[in-house]
Amino acid sequence: MDLEFSQLTRWLALIKCPQFGIVSFRALAAVLPSPTDVFTLTPKELSHYPLKACHVKYFSAPNWPWAERMAHWMIHNQVRFISILDAKYPLLLKQISRPPIGLFVAGNVDVLNSTQIGFVGSRSPSSYGRQMTSHLIDGLRHTPVTITSGLAVGIDGDAHKLALDNGLPTIAVMATGMQNIYPKRHCNLAERIKNFGCLVSEFPQMYQLFSITSP
């Protein structure tokens, strides 16, 4: 189920908190009905929760303008936020030591928990590499699998295109954030993927690649 605007805004404000990673998130989730209930607490109450000083400072005065702008952009562009508490969050991803608190997804969210085969290869593949990619994906044409790759130039892009050409769903995992389709030459490919798979990123914007360094 899509989050209501107010719920989405609270989740976005939560992940905007400096140095707030999965360890801090789980500690908060263990003592609150919902982690986003942290915004209902007073500064004095916040000091009694398992939070760092920087968390208490931020939650006392969250960045609501950013969260609201991002929520409007997501709704306009049909991008969903899937928190780690959501049933549609990938089950296998939850099992890594530091999974993302949430994912930004455009397209068919259901494919996130499908059986997937990942293709990652050279940005400048040889003709043999391209032939083998085509051979392997052609052979998967009648199987219930999803082709997952990174939308990059080379084998990644080939894998997505071949999946679509063979009627297979495909997932593009983007390190550059949902607002930054990269490379630009793959903007049309990204649109095709959204119609028969999904784009997914743990970042809404590229700058967060350099700001999320917390536990």
Describe this structure in words.
- With 215 residues, the chain is of the alpha/beta class.
- It has two domains: 1-76, no CATH class; 110-206, Rossmann fold (3-Layer(aba) Sandwich), CATH 3.40.50.450.
- Helix content is 36%, strand content 13%.
- The protein is built from eight helices and six strands, in the order H-H-H-H-H-E-E-E-H-E-H-E-H-E.
Strands, helices and their partners?
Layout: H1 5-15, H2 22-29, H3 43-46, H4 53-60, H5 64-76, E1 79-83, E2 102-107, E3 116-118, H6 127-139, E4 146-149, H7 155-165, E5 170-173, H8 187-195, E6 197-201
Parallel strand pairs: 3-4, 4-5, 5-6
Antiparallel strand pairs: 1-2, 2-6
Helix pairs in contact: 1-5, 6-7
Organism: Psychrosphaera algicola
Protein name: DNA-processing protein DprA
Family: Belongs to the DprA/Smf family.
Which structural category fits the helices and strands? Answer: alpha/beta
Unreliable stretches, pLDDT < 50, 5 or more residues? Answer: 207-215
**What oligomeric state best describes the polypeptide chains here?**
single chain
Give the C-alpha Rg: 19 Å
Strand and helix order: HHHHHEEEHEHEHE
CATH class of the largest domain: Alpha Beta
Give the distance, in angstroms, between the N- and C-terminal Cα atoms.
Answer: 29 Å
Number of helices: 8
Helix content: 25-40%
The dominant shape is: elongated
- Strand count: 6
User: Could you say what the CATH topology of the largest domain is called?
Assistant: Rossmann fold
Strand content: 5-15%
Whole-number tally of structural domains: 2
- The CATH level-2 architecture of the largest domain is identified as 3-Layer(aba) Sandwich
The biggest sheet amounts to: 6 strands, mixed
Q: Which strand order does the major sheet show?
A: 1-2-6-5-4-3
The overall average pLDDT, rounded, is 92
